[in-house]
């Protein structure tokens, strides 16, 4: 079986950047993507506007031209399609990586990457180096309460129209929660925002914050700050007042401290954040930090497993607010430079 120089897991901006660099350096590479091109961006709400300017989303030196100061999701999808076509990148879509293991092949140590296609076909690919550019948007943070798996409970928001005249409860205090609350309110939904902290998160977009705060102040959007979810039922959600505490490991935690309240709910959105697939990393032998990020060299991005690198959102752990396309897009090129130098 042939052994490639490098295999890239994930066709987001970081993975594409790595693929471009590999091709430019004449390396034998392949990109594997479990979904579609830039799958995380594709899963954003159709009407989403980025928090950044077009040039900060560019990869491979290809200009991102937009008539707007802040590009839209549709423009970004078009741009990254153009990138792939311009460089004619080798990408296999709808193929999920099941495991990454080091093994002997003809007397040398290589990585064996087992995959499964969307049609159930399994195969094993071999590579000297692996770049995990898996992001974190495909793995929502579960809150582990009864009823979280009910059909009217969602971890991703798309569009408001289906919730016209419905009672919608949104759990979360960041951008996703604030923007979806505003959109559904303006589409005729009766919205309640639930957040465990006493205020909204400081990271909310500056043009969104006054809008959501004014709607809450006016009572157009109901809010339950300082509350956690205890249970989700088919037609309601149970909340309880909470206090902030620290877990045994020193991590921030919230504990119920007051009476419970049951609110009617036709739909529940748990917009409580996302995490990288650390399970895949750990099974590959990668050690994690106390922030649940992979142990890696901050200069080379190589993990404690020689030849296994991480890029983009894969390095963030629970600190997802530190890695964006704007900085993660440079990781792949740096990694490939290291791989090429080693020959």
| Shape designation | globular
Number of strands: 15
Instruction: Please compute the radius of gyration using only Cα atoms.
Output: 22 Å
Biggest sheet details: 7 strands, mixed
Q: In which range does the helix fraction lie?
A: 10-25%
Write the layout of secondary structure elements.
Blueprint: E1 3-9, H1 13-24, E2 29-32, H2 39-42, H3 73-87, E3 91-92, E4 95-105, E5 108-117, E6 122-132, E7 153-154, E8 167-171, H4 175-186, E9 190-195, H5 209-218, E10 222-225, E11 227-233, E12 236-246, E13 252-264, E14 267-270, H6 278-283, E15 308-310, H7 325-328, H8 331-342
Parallel strand pairs: 1-2, 1-6, 2-3, 6-15, 7-14, 8-9, 8-14, 9-10
Antiparallel strand pairs: 4-5, 5-6, 11-12, 12-13
Can you walk through the features of this model?
The structure is a single chain. The chain has 343 residues and is of the alpha/beta class. 22% of the residues lie in helices and 29% in strands. The chain is built from eight helices and 15 strands. It has helices spanning 13-24, 39-42, 73-87, 175-186, 209-218, 278-283, 325-328, 331-342, and strands spanning 3-9, 29-32, 91-92, 95-105, 108-117, 122-132, 153-154, 167-171, 190-195, 222-225, 227-233, 236-246, 252-264, 267-270, 308-310. The strands form three sheets. Strands 1, 2, 3, 4, 5, 6 and 15 form a seven-stranded mixed sheet that branches. Helix 1 (13-24) runs parallel beside helix 8 and helix 4 (175-186) packs across helix 5 (209-218).
């Amino acid at each position: 079986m042939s052994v490639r120089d490098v295999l890239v897991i994930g066709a987001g901006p970081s993975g594409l950047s790595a693929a471009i660099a590999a091709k430019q350096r004449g390396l034998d590479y392949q990109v594997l993507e479990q979904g579609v091109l830039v799958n995380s961006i594709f899963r954003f709400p159709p009407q989403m506007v980025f928090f950044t300017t077009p040039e900060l989303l560019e990869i491979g030196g290809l200009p991102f031209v937009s008539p707007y100061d802040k590009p839209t999701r549709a423009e970004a999808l078009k741009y990254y399609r153009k990138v792939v076509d311009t460089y004619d990148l080798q990408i296999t879509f709808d193929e999920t990586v099941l495991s990454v293991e080091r093994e002997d092949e003809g007397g040398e140590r290589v990585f064996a990457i087992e995959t499964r296609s969307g049609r159930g076909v399994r195969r094993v690919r071999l590579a000297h180096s692996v770049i995990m550019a898996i992001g974190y948007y495909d793995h929502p943070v579960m809150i582990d309460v009864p009823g979280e798996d009910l059909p009217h409970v969602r971890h991703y928001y798309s569009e408001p129209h289906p919730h016209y005249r419905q009672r919608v409860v949104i759990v979360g205090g960041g951008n996703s929660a604030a923007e979806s609350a505003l959109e559904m309110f303006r589409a005729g939904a009766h919205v309640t925002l639930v957040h465990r902290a006493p205020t909204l998160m400081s990271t909310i977009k500056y043009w969104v914050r006054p809008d959501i705060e004014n709607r809450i102040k006016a009572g157009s959007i109901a809010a339950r700050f300082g509350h956690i979810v205890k249970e989700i039922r088919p037609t309601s959600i149970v909340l309880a007042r909470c206090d902030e505490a620290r877990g045994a490991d020193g991590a921030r935690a919230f504990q119920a401290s007051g009476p419970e309240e049951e609110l009617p709910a036709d739909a529940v959105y748990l917009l409580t954040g996302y995490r990288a697939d650390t399970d895949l990393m750990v099974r590959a032998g990668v050690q994690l930090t106390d922030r649940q990020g992979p142990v890696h060299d901050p200069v080379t991005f190589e993990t404690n497993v020689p030849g296994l690198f991480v890029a983009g959102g894969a390095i963030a752990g629970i600190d997802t607010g530190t890695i964006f396309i704007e900085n993660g897009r440079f990781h792949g090129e740096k990694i490939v430079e290291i791989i090429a130098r080693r020959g």
